[in-house]
Amino acid sequence: MKRVSALALLALALVAARPAPAYADLTAFLGLGTSPSTRPARGFAFGINLLIVGFEFEYSRTAEDLVKAAPGLTTGMFNGMVMTPTGNTQVYLTAGGGLFRERISDTTATSFGTNIGGGVKIGLVGPLRLRLDYRVYNLRQAGYKTPQRFYAGVNIAF
Questions:
Q1: Per DSSP, what are the bridge partners of residue 28?
Q2: Checking CA distances to 5, which of 20, 29, 115, 134 falls within 20 to 30 Å?
Q3: Digit-coded pLDDT (tens) for 52-66
């Protein structure tokens, strides 16, 4: 009888100790780049989320404005995330790095950059969420070294 109880407790412990499931999500967004002038931005992000940590790849493109001498900015960043493990609303902080290309007229700069930011994912219906995000970039080889971006997007978790 002791052996059966011990095996039952061991089986229960193994079931309870299994890793938390990973979830993925996809975001399509529209936003604004603010340095040196406000211009439209758009892009997408794909993430893998564990309980309180996650990882994502994000691609973004901010439009060029020749009249205001504001360069276009294209980024491809890999980020780590720390988030609240709540159900309907999830607050997160993110930081990462990747490649960028700044372009104005025929002049371009391509190099490595970093970013830091945060945001919130707000549940709407089923797996559909509203995502609000703010980022500050550090682009040492660019003409504008610390551009900022704010976006709103549609996020679907799966």
A1: 44, 154
A2: 20
A3: 999 999 999 999 999
pTM, two decimals, is: 0.84
Tell me how far apart the alpha carbons of residues 59 and 56 are, in angstroms, rounded to a whole number: 10
Convert the pLDDT of each residue in 100-146 to its tens digit. 999 999 999 999 999 999 999 999 999 999 999 999 999 999 999 99
Pair 141, 107: CB distance under 8 Å: no
Preceding amide of 147 cis, omega within 30: no
All domains of the chain in start order, with CATH: 20-157 (2.40.160.20)
Residue identified by tokens 């089986």 is: 11
How many Å apart are CA 135 and CA 32, to the nearest integer? 11
Rounded to whole angstroms, how far apart are CA atoms 28 and 46?
A: 9
DSSP 18: S
Question: Is the CA virtual torsion 135, 85, 128, 57 positive or negative?
Answer: positive
Residues with Cβ within 8 Å of 53's Cβ and at least 6 positions away in sequence, in order, are 80, 81, 82, 83
